[in-house]
Every structure is written in structure tokens, then in C-alpha cells.
Amino acid sequence: MSDSDVVDVTRTPVQGGADHYESTLRHRPRGPHDGGPEMIQMLDPEGQRVDMGGAGEYAHHVDALTPDELRGFYRDLVLLRRFDLEATALQRQGELGLWVSLLGQEASQIGCGRAMRRQDHAFPGYREHGIAWCRGLDPMRLIAMYRGVDRCAWDPEEFGLHTYTVVIGNQVLLGTGYAMGVQRDGAVGTGDPDRDTAVVAFMGDGATAQGDVNEGFVFAGVNDSPIVFFCQNNQWAISEPNERQMRSPIYKRADGFGFPGVRVDGNDVLATYAVTKELLDRARAGQGPALIEAFTYRMAAHTTSDDPTKYRFSAEVEMWKLRDPIARFKTWLAHEGIADHTYFAQIDAEADALAAQVREATITMPDPPMGEIFDHVYVEPHRQVEDDRAFLAAYLDSFVDEEVA
Amino acid sequence: MATTKMTIAKALNAGLRRAMENDPKVLIQGEDVGKLGGVFRITEHLQKDFGEDRVIDTPLAESGIMGTAIGMALRGYRPVVEIQFDGFVYPAFDQIVSQLAKLRSRSRGAIRLPVVVRIPMGGGIGAVEHHSESNEAYFAHTLGLKVVFCSNPTDAYWMIQQAIACDDPVIFYEPKRRYHEKGEIDLDASGPASDLFSARTVREGSDLTLACYGPMVRTCLDAAAAAEQEGRLLEVIDLRSVSPLDINALTTSVTKTGRLVVVHEASGFVGMGAEIAAAVTERCFYALEAPVLRVTGWNAPYPPSKIEELFLPDLDRVLDGVDRALAY
Ligand SMILES: Cc1ncc(C[n+]2csc(CCOP(=O)(O)OP(=O)(O)O)c2C)c(N)n1
Ligand SMILES: [Mg+2]
What is the pLDDT of residue A2? Predict the structure, then answer.
């Protein structure tokens, strides 16, 4: 399958003038969505090591991985999925207001997250639980946000992880600006592996329509900023398929902004790792931005509030099940003799323990105090905020007094 | 007269359908409005029945949605834009403020922009950040826009049609936490009972006036019912439109009751309550027996949902405001 099959633009001339075209795009049936021959793939869905889409160029990064690191990827994938499923279950039981599942996108995020260095900085959307995991954030911080207890109250500098961003695309400009700051600090191209820094900004396929995202590309392009734009193309933006958002493949857009773009199999952890590693190294070396399109699939609903049966066929989901990111990696690890039954069983047990821990910590998580409304609105006190804080405190006290009396 | 029991959500859907049937120039565009029928299902089945040319699933870009809607209006269409949640209107803010609001005066009246911007607004649904905002003051402060709120199914049904028929741009707020509240509607009535921009007295009383709109109308009606138990007769005015503001309805009521409490979810600081208090005080200072008081969301960003009940004015807080006004 070629590019043009992925996002086909079939235009039929209309009678009466060469300048007038009628689009037939909307009537086009959805294609097979296998990413096409340009997609970089190292592990096929059956768990065979392959060299697709020019993967060979990146293979040295995989060759450099130790068996411990490879087993670590597996552990990440399994624990992340288990955490995500537990969070979905907790939402169903009323313990969370919402959950945004990353089911199916684990390899995109673990591959990318493990390619980052300590000093790098990630700018996530709202589904990047695997990135948060790799940055060392306690997953309960994510639970707290979706339980409605806080709004990402972690210190971004501590983890090299900006807060989650819910407004589609905003974080892409923030990440670009952060990378411009990195340049001004002289933290690119020094050759010192612990100093040279890159930024990764995350977005979905739908987000590529936003002005902020395109402006981020422009700014990073003209500034040669050390940033990798990591787009998880999970084929859907809520109910809208790729066809409603774009007419040419995402990775190809980079060309127009003046930096390289690649499509990688987002369900192949080796490929996402290797490609991200290569392009992050390049950015840290001062060679400018890049766009990675991780071709993957949103296996779950958009969020727990969504009902995908309204707009997509289960056959499509079934087909993507066969491309599961964890199954293929497990097969390969076993085949290579890197991990065995005992190891897999041990990770399953660890995942069970994590799930139990998450459940317990969620159920016992206290509500925030009243002060949470007014704390931290400004660095310095603000008269009108403080007036309302005092007013609410007195108002709540009036009930206590009544109860006592 | 044949009435039907309907939710606000269904009434909006029926109103949109009728507007589309009556005028082939009416279009709908927004994110997920087509096949899904919108995340709140307000546009459910409309794409199926009116086609993809009239109900457009757009790319995910609010500035694009807004700017192209204005462009289609320039070409003679009457676009109804859906902004998925209140907090996502800001990418479209530039197009709304710089073009939608100003093209008519810029062109000395040559241009009309009959564009409706539907925004599900307000909190109380346990949502994550950016899904619970009340941003009406930004738009009311932008002259060139009209800003209205529906608060019940009958108004939802008629007001959406009136907004679409209006030749000026209308920001149309829908109280999302009330979407599923039901009421009787007469779908066969030949037209609406009131003008789109006039307030309505939804409960008569003599002791104090509560002015409210959108989601707070239900809260104020509940508060008035509770106050009656204590012998206090509150008048409740559903403003319906905050720009233009039906000041006469307020001064008439305040002249009778002598006291006014304004209730809204948005923060009080530079909110609609401030404008209303000033406008009423300027006009009927001698009729007032107490300062105009405000019961509003606090002066802070909307909090995490676990404590949103502390942020939102509720029955107790409205009654507390009533007590304070009556204490003068
Ligand atoms: C500015 C803005 N508009 C609308 C929304 C509502 N919304 C949340 S997620 C989403 C779809 C996002 O799709 P995509 O970028 O593909 O990311 P995915 O959710 O698939 O990971 C929409 C429309 C939003 N969060 N922000
Ligand atoms: Mg997507």
C-alpha cells in the first residue's frame, strides 16, 4: 500500500472549468491502515525481526540494548497496560471522574519514553501515561488528576515532564519555546551527553489540525530548535477518522516546515525506541527538530465517557488486536531467549501487585481541602482572591457553629 | 395544544432540526457533530437526515471552525458552530472578537453575519479541567456579539431557532449540567412566547429579586421555593440574554422588591453581576433598600472537580446572599 492509499485524494473534474473540482473523498471507504511500505518496522505483528521502511538505518540503537534493558521494556509495557486497565475499572466503579485509556499505544510511549535522557523534557497531552511512567512520575499523580483531586500538581522540572495538557495542541508551542530556551542556555551541540538536551512534544492525529501545532512546527523550524514532535496517530480523534483531519500523511508534513519526518510502527517498541533515539540524538547535537508519526491504534474508547460503537466498526478493532504491541514483543523475547516463562510470570505478579496498590491508594485518596481553590492562583497574594478565601472560610464556619449550637 | 415532555438536549436537537428544515442555508459545523451527533448528542441524526454538506465534521481546530463559518456566512449561509466545551472556545477567540464581532461595523453595515456559536457551559458534571467554565463576560464585553443562555427545554427549542434567525452573531450558551432536565414543550406552537433578548420573570415575589441565567435558574427557583417556607417571597428573573441586557425587567422588579441578588457561576470579579449591579444602581438607586449583592463562583480558576460543589453557587449560598440582602 502506498501513501496515496492511506489518505487518498481522489478528485474528479467537474464540467465547466478545469479549476473546479468536486471532492469524492468523503465517500471513500476507509483503507486497510497498515502504515504502508514507508513505515519503519523492526518487529512484525508475529514477533519476527524485520527490516521495513528503512529500519536498518536505526538498527544499531536496538543492537546496543542489553538483555536487561529489553526485559525492562517488557516490564514497562505490561505494568503500564495493567495500570491503565485498573484505572478504567476504577472509573467504571465511580472512583474516577474520567479515564483516558492508552490501550494499544503502549509501545509508542515506552519506546519514546525510554529513548529520552534524564535532562530531556516532555510536553504531554492527556493520554501519555507511558511517558509519565518513564519519567518516573508516581502513577497515582495521574489518578489524582482524573479523580478530580488535583490538576497535575507535580513539579515539571523534577521529572522533566510538563503538566498534562487537555486543550488540544497548546503544549506543542510550550515545548517549542522550552526548546528555544534550551538553545539559549547553550545546552545543545556541546557533545556532553549529560548536558545536551532535547524536548519531546506529544500530540494526536487530530491535534495536527490545530493552529498551535502548526505554529510550533514553524517556530521550531526557523529556530532549528532541539525538539522532537511525537505524534501518535491512533487513527481517531474521538469520532473523526484521519480522513476528516488531513489529506496527506502526517509525517510528510515535516518537509514543508523544513525538518525530517518519519513514520514508525507505533506498535513496535523496538522501532519507536530506535527512531526516537536517533532523532533525539540529532536534536541534542544541534541539528534541529524532527517529526515522528507513530502509527498506532486507539483500542479503547476515546475516554470512559465515549461510546465508539456509534462511529466505528468492531471489525477494525479486531484487526488491530492482531497487531498488539505487547504480544509481538513477548514472542520475540522468548524466541531470542532473552526472557522465559519464569520472567513473564514474575512480571505478571508484579502487575497484579501494582494494580492492587493503585486500587487501594485510589479508594483511600482524600479530597482536597477548601484552600485548594485559592492556593497558588498567584505567586503573591491578590486582594480579590484573598477576600473570597476569607468569605468562604467564614461561610463554612457558620455551618459548623450551627451544628455545634 | 399537544405538549411533549423533553430534555433540554432533545429540545435543542428538535430546534436545530426545525431551523434546518425551514431554511436550506442553515449549516452546522464542529468537532464530532456528524456521525457521533456531538459529545452531548445535541446534533444527533442531523447529518444522517440533512447530509454531510449541511452537518460538517470539521478538523480539530476551533479557529478554523470559526473562521470558515464566518466565511460561509459571507457567502450567504447561516452557520451554527458547535464548540465542544466552554474551555475550548479560546483558539476561536481571535476570529470571534476580531472578525465576527466587528465585520458589520467595519463595513458600515454592508455585512451581516448570522452566525450562532453554541457553547455547552458551566460546571457541576465532575469533569477535568477546561470542561466547566463560564466565559460569558469575555463575549458580553465584546460589542458586536449578542450573548444568550437557555435554561429550560421550551427556551432551548425556541431560542436556538431565534438565534439562528437573528441577523447578528449570537453566542448561544447551553447549561450542560441541565441537558437532561425535562420539561413540557408545545412543538406545534406557531412561535416562541418571547423575544430572544428579553428577560422573563419565572417566579413572582415581593421581598427580593434574584437575577440569574442558564444553569443558575434552576438553583434560584429551588432557593425561592425554600425561602417561601420561611415566609420570604422571592422574585426570580431569568435574564436569558446577557447582551443585550434587559435592564427594564430588572428595574421594574427592583422597584417593587427593593433588593437584588445576582447569581452566576462565573467568578464575581468583573463578571456579569458587576455590570448588572452598576446598571441597576444607576437607574433605581432610591428604590434600593440594600446594595446589589452577588452570589457567584469564587475569584479563582475553576477547581478540581472533587471540590467543585464548594465553588458553585448552590441553594444554601443563594439563601445566604438573600439573608445578607434582607439584613440591611
Ligand atoms: C482545543 C480543544 N478542542 C477540543 C477538545 C476536545 N477533545 C478532546 S480530545 C479530542 C480529540 C483528540 O484527538 P487526537 O488529537 O487524535 O488525540 P487522541 O485523543 O486520539 O489521543 C477532542 C476533540 C479539546 N480537548 N481541546
Ligand atoms: Mg487520535
Answer: 38
Cβ–Cβ contact B270 with A under 8 A: no
pLDDT tens-digit profile of B60-106? 999 999 999 999 999 999 999 999 999 999 999 999 999 999 999 99
The rounded distance, in Å, linking the Cα atoms of B38 and B52 is 14
In chain B, list all ranges with CATH 3.40.50.920: 200-326
| CB A107 within 8 Å of CB A158 | no
Write the ipTM.
0.95
- Per CATH, the number for A34-363 is 3.40.50.970
Pairing of strands A49-52, A121-123: unpaired
CATH code of domain B4-185: 3.40.50.970
Q: Does B306 touch chain A (CB under 8 A)?
A: yes
Cα dihedral across residues A339, A345, A350, A355: positive or negative: positive
CA of A392 to the centre of ligand 1 (A): 35
Contact across the interface for A373 and B306, Cβ inside 8 Å: no
Q: Which three cell numbers stand for residue A122?
A: 516532555
What is the rounded average pLDDT of the residues A226-233? 98
Q: If you count residue pairs, one on A and one on B, with CB atoms under 8 Å apart, how many are there?
A: 119
- Length, in residues, of chain A: 405
- The answer regarding whether domain B200-326 maps to CATH 3.40.50.920 reads yes
What are the extents of the domains in chain A? 34-363
pLDDT in tens, A301-346: 999 999 999 999 999 999 999 999 999 999 999 999 999 999 999 9
Across the interface, whether the CB atoms of B317 and A395 are under 8 A apart is answered: yes
Does the CB of B317 have a partner CB in chain A at under 8 Å?
A: yes
Active site residues of B: 131
